[in-house]
Amino acid sequence: MQRWQGKTAVISGASAGIGAAICVVLADAGMRVVGLARRPQLVDQLQSQVRGNGSIHSRRCDVSNSDDVAATFKWIDEQFGNIHVLVNNAGIFPKGHITEIGDNILSEETLMSVVDINLKGPVMCARHAVASMKRASFDGHIININSIAGHYVPFADMFNVYPGTKHAITAFTETLANELAYFNSKIKITSLSPGLVGTDMAPRVDGELSFAALSPQDVAEAVLYVLSTPPHVNIKELTITPVSEKRL
């Protein structure tokens, strides 16, 4: 991780869960972390958990809003110089049904917000991050926090459009990798696909997790592993699951 010391990492969805854990791990590794969230005050509180020589800064940003994303990345460039690492972590998973055939129908607004946050957000953030890296002639790294639901569709009624957005992230990661390679860019891009993670989005029965789950810290450590690879090595896809995970 020596090459990342003092460099700037941008993490979306940074106020809780996986995003918060990634912020702390990267700051502990000596990076300057900018956490994007709709609740930036929660990102500010993460600094007290940092034990390394890095730092955590917050910025309010709705990644589903293109203008907000553009203004945020402009601000980051002005405040901290160029972006070296982007972790597209923001995502939502409302439980419910797509159509009225089910008994828990999600509104059109909710369904479209899943698409906007889970897919539009990563695309727009990646565009601005690559532009920043190109301006600085720096070979950075983009990590898309995907899901095992981006590689198969769980047989369950509650997943609605969530697997579709994650399959799109799988395709987007590969498409952007091809584009970067075509133009001989050394910028890396990785899809990191966890199984069930014990966050607020995980299914519970009487407050307890329904299945074996990873912790947010497990995913954060996987991000650290991906970043620790030498410049000539790129991990395009990394899938991590609990040892005893059972598929739906």
From TrEMBL:
Family, as annotated: Belongs to the short-chain dehydrogenases/reductases (SDR) family.
Record keyword Oxidoreductase present: yes
Keyword Oxidoreductase: yes
MF annotations from Gene Ontology: oxidoreductase activity, acting on the CH-OH group of donors, NAD or NADP as acceptor
Protein name: Farnesol dehydrogenase-like
Gene this protein is translated from: LOC114247690
Protein keywords: Oxidoreductase
Superkingdom as given in the UniProt entry: Eukaryota
InterPro entries reported for this sequence: NAD(P)-bd_dom_sf (IPR036291), Sc_DH/Rdtase_CS (IPR020904), SDR_fam (IPR002347)
